[in-house]
Automatic annotation (TrEMBL):
Keywords annotated in UniProt: ATP-binding, Cell inner membrane, Cell membrane, Membrane, Nucleotide-binding, Translocase, Transport
Keyword Nucleotide-binding: yes
Natural source organism: Lentzea tibetensis
Pfam families from the UniProt entry: ABC_tran
PANTHER family in alphabetical order: TAURINE IMPORT ATP-BINDING PROTEIN TAUB (PTHR42788:SF18), TAURINE IMPORT ATP-BINDING PROTEIN-RELATED (PTHR42788)
Molecular functions (GO terms): ATP binding; ATP hydrolysis activity
UniProt-recorded name of the protein: ABC transporter ATP-binding protein
């Protein structure tokens, strides 16, 4: 799925947060959007997800974004798991809501939990899992729905350094394996350089990912 944004404007009340922003994400690309706190990164994701009104144009595979769609999945720092459902039943839930037959959703959920390294933990409740494991469940739940576009908003912000590094590797592997187009928001320079096929710094344009010294200077 490709995304073409042109002349985008978003504001809350009278104050504009984004104005005249243009950006393209190619099919299968992992684009990182970086920038200092408050520059509008989350707002950009919310607009692409169809959660906030905007001016200008957001085209997803050529069609304007008007409201939310299952095709576009938003992943947050908070995992949003239901505390009374096991890991397996959390992953199954959106598939059940989509009417996927029981046997199919069970095998898909099991396969995704295995892919994110959680086989053996299917029957655990969220409170019995670490923060990193809960993020793995969230990732499995998101990808089991086979979205064409994944929007990730600082998903690893609350994890410790080691867990974060293993999640970054996992996300990078899985998204590339599945060819899922992704917009990944972070304010962490190392994460941006590690994950991004390209890095866009809001307010400063595109920055060469291979020249992270420049990126660090821009974000400092
Ligand atoms: N629901 C809202 N109502 C009013 N103002 C808002 C709302 N959400 C965000 N803002 C304002 O819009 C601006 C951009 O916020 P946004 O969350 O998009 O930035 P960000 O770059 O993602 O920041 P951070 O890195 O801190 O998450 C901020 O000044 C914020 O206060």
């Amino acid at each position: 799925m490709s995304v073409v944004i042109s002349g985008l404007g978003v504001g809350y009340g009278r104050s504009p947060v984004l104005s005249d922003l243009s950006l393209e994400v190619r099919q299968g690309e992992l684009l990182v959007v970086a920038g200092p706190s408050g520059c509008g990164k989350s707002t950009l994701l919310r607009a692409v997800a169809g959660l906030v009104p905007y001016t200008g144009q957001i085209l997803v595979d050529g069609a304007p974004v008007r409201g939310t769609s299952r095709e576009r999945a938003l992943v947050f720092q908070e995992d949003g798991l239901l505390p009374w459902r096991t890991a397996l039943r959390n992953v199954e839930l959106p598939l059940a809501l989509q009417g996927v037959p029981r046997a199919v959703r069970r095998s898909s959920a099991l396969a995704w939990l295995d892919r994110v390294g959680l086989s053996g933990f299917e029957g655990h409740l969220p409170r019995e899992l670490s923060g990193g494991m809960r993020q793995r469940v969230q990732l499995a739940r998101t990808l089991a729905q086979q979205p064409s576009l994944v929007l990730m908003d600082e998903p690893f912000g609350a994890l410790d350094a080691q867990t974060r590094a293993s999640m970054q590797q996992l996300v990078s592997d899985v998204l590339r394996e599945t060819g899922t187009t992704t917009i990944f928001v972070t304010h962490d320079v190392d994460e941006a350089v590690l994950l991004g096929d390209r890095v866009v710094v809001l307010g400063a344009g595109e920055v060469d990912v291979h020249r992270d010294a420049i990126l660090k200077a821009v974000l400092a």
